[in-house]
Structure of Quinolinate synthase:
Amino acid sequence: MKDLKEKILALKKEKNAVILAHYYQESDIQDVADYVGDSLGLSQEAVKAEADIIVFAGVHFMAETAKILNPSKKVILPDAKAGCSLADGCPPDEFKKFTDAHPDHVVITYVNCSAEVKALTDIVVTSSNAVKIVNSIPKDKPIIFAPDKNLGKYVMEVTGREMLLWDGSCVVHEAFSLEKLLDLYKEHPDAKIIAHPESETHILQTAKYIGSTAGMIDFVKTDSNHKYIVATEAGILHKMQQEVPHKILIPAPAKEDNTCACSECGYMKMNTLQKLYNCLLNESPEVTVPDDIIAKALIPIERMLELSK
Ligand code: 13P
Ligand code: SF4
């Protein structure tokens, strides 16, 4: 493993590549990355990238976003099949029919969607800026929010805005069991539950803090409690624990029928250290986006980056 990590670091230097990784990537991948972050941080980092090659250790929509922001650079993804249930659940042709049926609505989409869907969008949001961006829309403007209905419901609750929601969800965050979570909390009444807003309302109602992956890490760093039950993908525990080595972090439990005791994203975990090495070596699989889609999708992404400053 050490050998493979060293080979990746050498190859990265030789090819003038940068490795951007999401918090849900396996620990070994996070350890070789130049930057590990949430979706907003990764987009902001992609804008700054000066390397010739961006290795995106995340899922396909994230690599597409990096490509839209850097059309002249080569963007590669360790496993081209690393998708996302939210992006898959919002096919562009069906989404177009939905937006065409509501032409007076401002179209806001969560970054977890395809480049084609972003091209049909007015403003993109991530979990860390969705509330702020929805609040920036004039009160008299009706809003479509897609594709995550759980994040949408949460934003509606916080902002008090009615929004027309697309019926999509994250399979990982919907896998949390409320019953098991409450049992776990009974065992650890001194813990604070923290949750990602892709989780269902009944899970969010138990949480003392709700935020993006980066927001959750910041919260445990600045909060005075010593124990947390963490309701998001388990990969976050690697960096979170490094930030608070003296605190106790417990992953929120998944429902019985899930394959692991905690919630892991099968798409994120398609990337492995070996695939990362192979993709850097072969500069493949490459993520490409047609020029006309880049031109259209860039506008709502840049609006988001501007509103996130
Ligand atoms: P953030 O890291 O932006 O909170 O997003 C979580 C997620 O599910 C990414 O797919
Ligand atoms: Fe998509 Fe959920 Fe996996 Fe994030 S955790 S990539 S939203 S399936």
Q: What stands out?
A: The chain has 15 helices and twelve strands. The chain has a mean pLDDT of 96. Residues 23, 38-39, 84, 112, 126-127, 170, 196, 198, 212-213 surround 1,3-dihydroxyacetonephosphate (ligand 1) (CB under 6 Å). The domain at 173-251 is CATH 3.40.50.10800 (Rossmann fold).
